[in-house]
Amino acid sequence: MNRYLSNKKAIGLFLLPALLIYSVVIIYPVLQTVYRSFFNWDGLSTATWNGLSNYRDLLEDPLLITSLRNGLLFALVLAVFQIGLGTVLALACADPRIKGRKLLKTSYFIPVVLSVTVVCQLWIAMYDPTNGLINRLFNLLHIPYQQNWLTSPTVSIIAIAFVNAWQFMGYQFSLLYAGVKSIPEQYMEAATIDGCSKWMAHRKVTIPLMKENYKFCLIVAITSGIGAFVQMLIMTSGGPGTSNYTLTYMIYRYAFMESNYGYACAVSVVLVALSLLATMIINKTFDRNEA
Question: Where are the beta strands (DSSP E) in the chain?
Fold first, then answer.
């Protein structure tokens, strides 16, 4: 018994530095944000208590609906593109019949390590309505879909989401590829012996055994979409108008452009709550299907 207690104390001592850092870096700022959301504060003068006024104003703010819609659309694009294409590429790179797999795996991950600014500038040039590669390609293929990709209120959010999905697809690919390689080859061999085609074996064996990988990838995609910000800031500055605003862009505007920190904190609380809610729903859904 004494040995058991001493082991618990040792484990606690080893965990203490990490817990202290986590408390200072994560827990304390979150609690401060919740606390500040009940005040009217410009960041310099003395904060004044205003109760739930920030939250009432937020519910009446038309930017909230725009930001929620854009965040959900952004998350949908990330989830479909990154997880869908990541699965196809992971299965392809795990197939020993594919030549040059090492080169392919490296090339898929290269965009992840590039600066977001560099990637955004690259795609700004590609989206250029006059000389951009995208419109030139449509013109070459005689497809009448040329347009102003970053100045259209309806298309620009999808165009920006695609940039994020393209850059970080390699991260999702690496997680899914690890999941594919963790499955014993005997399972696939047994499915092949039973008469399954390669595609049927993946659909019946590989993909169901990767539920935990898919759960984590989906959480990353959804929370990244809800909190998207950098691409909007660099590529369109939230425009045209406010059509590309997300919750994080709202926080940036109210905190650093209008010095309304109390209101920005209220938006931050909503952002954190939505991210936690999405994570809980995804976890519950996967756990229910597993049961």
Answer: 39-40, 48-49
> How many Cβ atoms are within 10 Å of 222's Cβ, its own excluded?
23
| Of 23, 154, 168, nearest in space to 81 by CA | 168
Q: Is 152 in contact with 69 (CB distance < 8 Å)?
A: no
- Cβ contacts of residue 174 below 8 Å, gap of 6+? 109
Structural tokens at position 134 = 């995208």
32, part of any domain: no
The DSSP output letter for 48 is: E
217 and 224 Cβ atoms separated by less than 8 Å? no
Quote the pTM value. Answer: 0.88
pLDDT digits (tens, 9 = 90+) for 230-278: 999 999 998 888 899 999 999 999 999 999 999 999 999 999 999 999 9
Give CA separation, 275 vs 7, 33, 148, 197, 271, in Å: 36, 15, 32, 39, 6
CA dist., res. 5 & res. 237, Å (int) = 56
| Total count of domains within the chain | 1
Contacts of residue 92, defined as CB under 8 A and 6 or more positions apart, other chains included, come to: 98, 104
Q: Name beta bridge partners: 40.
A: 48
Q: Which residues form the domain of 135?
A: 75-243
Q: Which two tokens stand for residue 164?
A: 């994020």
